[in-house]
Amino acid sequence: MSEQVHNRLAMVRAEREVSRQALAEAVGAHYQTIGYIERGQYNPSLDLALKIAEFFELPVEALFSLRPMRSLTDEVYGRKQS
Questions:
Q1: What backbone torsions phi and psi does residue 70 show, to the nearest 5 degrees?
Q2: Cβ neighbours around 27 below 10 Å, total
Q3: Residue 48 is inside which H or E element, if any?
Q4: Are 44 and 37 in contact (CB under 8 A)?
Q5: What is the pTM of this model?
Q6: CA distances (Å), origin 6, targets 13, 25, 41, 53
Q7: What does the DSSP 8-state code read for residue 62?
Q8: Per residue of the chain (82 residues), what is the pLDDT tens digit?
Q9: Alpha carbon of 3 to those of 35, 37, 45, 67: distances in Å?
Q10: Which sign, positive or negative, has the C-alpha torsion 33, 12, 51, 44?
């Protein structure tokens, strides 16, 4: 059984005003797959995670993690994780 992959995909997609459909078309996936990833119901393949990161011009670690992700406010302002 694989670990859950945590992500910030929904937040980044909304911030950049990219629809699930547009992202899916750009990375060669189905729009429902993007939704499953965002909800943590599906772990993306390495290939798909890298394509998504490349689409947003972000390092893959900015979007995906094996550990729960800290809020961006905490990361930006350097608050300690509890």
A1: -70, 155
A2: 19
A3: helix 46-56
A4: yes
A5: 0.84
A6: 15, 22, 10, 14
A7: H
A8: 568 999 999 999 999 999 999 999 999 999 999 999 999 999 999 999 999 999 999 999 999 999 998 777 777 787 665 5
A9: 18, 13, 13, 9
A10: negative
Q: How far apart are CA 32 and CA 30, in angstroms?
A: 5
Take residue 64 and report the two structure tokens written for it.
């995906």
- Looking at the DSSP bridge assignments, the partners of residue 64 are 7
Helix, strand, or coil (residue 73): helix
Q: At 32, which amino acid appears?
A: Q
Q: Are strands 64-65 and 6-7 parallel, antiparallel or unpaired?
A: antiparallel
| Contact assessment for residue 33 and residue 42, using Cβ atoms and an 8 Å cutoff | yes
**CA 66, CA 71: separation in Å to the nearest integer?**
15
Contact between 34 and 23 under an 8 Å Cβ cutoff? The reply is: yes
